[in-house]
Write the structure tokens for this entry.
Amino acid sequence: MKIGDLELGGLPLFLAPMEDVTYKSFRYMCKKFGADVMYTEFVNSDALVRNVAKTKLKMSLFDFDRPVAIQIYGHDIGAMAEAAKVAEEAGPDFIDINFGCPMKKIVRRGAGAALLQDLPRMQEMAAAVVKAVRLPVTAKTRLGWDEHDKPVVEAALRLQDAGIAALAIHGRTRSQLYNGQADWTLIGEVKNHPRITMPIIGNGDVKGPRQAEELWRQSGVDGLMIGRPAIGRPWIFREIKHFLATGETLPPPSVEDVVDNVREQLQLSIAWKEDERRGILEMRRHLAKYFPHLPNFREMKIKLLQSEDYETVDKLLDLIAEEYRGMKVDYTDIGLS
């Protein structure tokens, strides 16, 4: 698969862009375990144009990231074109446009998935961003607005005509948010449409190696994108690659291995934030997902999520490693999408 002149190999695995999730330390962990392509958190185009420091910080890129994209979103076509120029200066390998975010605060301003209700405007915005930069431009979207409005095939054709170099499709509608089952049949229709020549990346319900293989074979997509299932399980990329290469399932990690990786990610977060408390707060979403299905773990989990200093978290991690020594962490049936 290629994005512009960027060669990504046979079936690349993408870490989906997620707000307050795909920051430096988490991207590092996913790359460590085999993710092929990184995305930053999605970036507000209006804030970029206004030169908001906190927003520009989201575009900080590192050598381990590559290949990496900066994803931008917005409702104003001119601001999106200008934001793309600012993002290009940060040195990503490509620019991505968010046409899929279902969050109310994004949609009510006419950005993200709202553009699925106005395909001509979506196409115009994509074309303006493509024209504004020298880098390849990709996009991420959903099947449509709701069960009765799924224009993803037309959207894909319009985006391809606008110059979009690759398209990631989340197999749900905006109204579904992250609920229900992803529909990969429609993703496959886009991929196998006779007029579609750009690479198609499938996203949604890639919860493990077997689902990854099944959904890939069902749809024929050029790449797989993994979002929330990687939270608390960055080694999912390694598991998928191993299964696709050998047909064998890797054993689940031990509690001690998970503790070591949690500690590594936490230390990276603290170093990146240059603030112990802020680094720990940044990690809470991940801490909540790292130890599924451990017996009698609720009290320990609450303590982890309430701790605000490294010494306390470090001691709790030691206690977890000792109390559950020799146990494996079971990531099956964790209900993520």
Q: What stands out?
A: The chain has a mean pLDDT of 94.
